[in-house]
Write a structure and sequence with these properties.
heterodimer, A: mainly beta, 1 helix, 12 strands, B: about 160 residues, alpha+beta, 3-stranded antiparallel β-sheet, 7 helices, 3 strands, about 10% strand
Chain lengths: ~140, ~160
């Protein structure tokens, strides 16, 4: 059965630790707004060799720009262009891949961002598992 | 599966529902376009979870909503979206066929400078094809171009 929990704060058991001989109470609660705002809003994993989307959330398409360049597009726009993106890449055969630029060629917009994958020789390359994730406020 | 009545539901929550309840649909369609004469062709690949939402209906906002947000963002003094409610409060679009979904995606994710004038120059700037019609390896990927042999008549056929 579907349910809904409405809460402003999540709280665990408060702990006490000894720091430099003094007893210190460690707060163990957080406002739910921090949890919501801190959650990833969109992510994608794709095979840039065949440009196939493997897994995703909140993404409507990925544009293959050229070797090593791709541009995912959000379904739910971000509120501002200043959101946090992080990426990673690699092959199962352990070929090195690095996300060299998360705002490749142009500033991000609230709907899309472009990133570049390079190899150990600093040349643009395609990798089997290329992935990125975005944090920030939604529009 | 029946889509819940989502008008007024935050789009993020709708996407969470879709992720939990719909299987992704890998489309064979690809949109190939050129937005600069100095660059190679770009390939737009539909996302399978997005395609599932499009085929299901009742989840995605109308495409004009994205155009309105793009207009806002194009303003020189743009800092932050203030009309995000359009994404959440506008009546979601009905179920689409896969072909209609690709048309929607072109309007949403391709640069408007491409789709507004894709067949007005002396060569096509955009074509829809199937995945198997693309080169089978990525050799010379940086030199891929839309074939000059294609014409708008081919698209209509």
């Amino acid at each position: 059965m579907a349910g809904k929990i409405i809460a402003d704060q999540i709280e665990g058991t408060t702990t006490t630790e000894t720091v430099d001989g003094a007893s210190v109470t460690i707060p163990n609660s957080i406002d739910t707004k921090y949890v919501v705002n801190g959650s990833a809003k969109a992510f994608e994993i794709h095979d840039s060799d065949s440009v196939t989307v493997i897994e995703s959330f909140g993404i409507s398409s990925i544009t293959d720009g050229t070797t090593g360049i791709c541009s995912p597009v959000f379904i739910n726009n971000m509120a501002t262009p200043e959101y946090f993106s992080v990426g990673s890449t690699g092959n199962e055969d352990q070929s090195i891949g690095i996300i060299a630029s998360m705002r490749d060629g142009a500033a991000a917009t609230t709907s899309t961002y472009t990133y570049r994958t390079i190899n150990s020789a600093n040349a643009s390359t395609d990798r089997d598992n290329t992935m990125s994730c975005n944090h920030g406020d939604l529009a | 599966m029946q889509t819940p009545q989502f008008k007024g539901t935050h789009l993020f929550d709708r996407l969470c529902w879709a992720k939990e309840n719909l299987d992704g649909v890998q489309s064979d369609y690809r949109v190939v376009y050129e937005d600069s004469v100095d660059e190679c062709a770009k390939i737009l690949v539909p996302d399978p979870n997005w395609m599932a939402c499009a085929l299901q209906g009742g989840i995605l906002p109308p495409v004009w909503v994205y155009h309105e947000l793009a207009k806002d963002e194009a303003q020189p003094d743009f800092k932050k979206h203030t009309r995000g409610y359009l994404l959440h409060n506008t009546e979601p679009v009905e179920a689409m066929t896969e072909e209609e979904a690709i048309e929607y995606l072109i309007l949403k994710d391709c640069p408007d400078s491409v789709w507004k004038t894709y067949n007005e120059g002396n060569r096509l700037k955009m074509v829809i094809c199937r995945k198997e019609q693309l080169p089978q390896t990525r050799e010379w990927r940086n030199a891929w171009k839309i074939s000059d042999a294609l014409s708008s008549t081919d698209l209509a056929a």
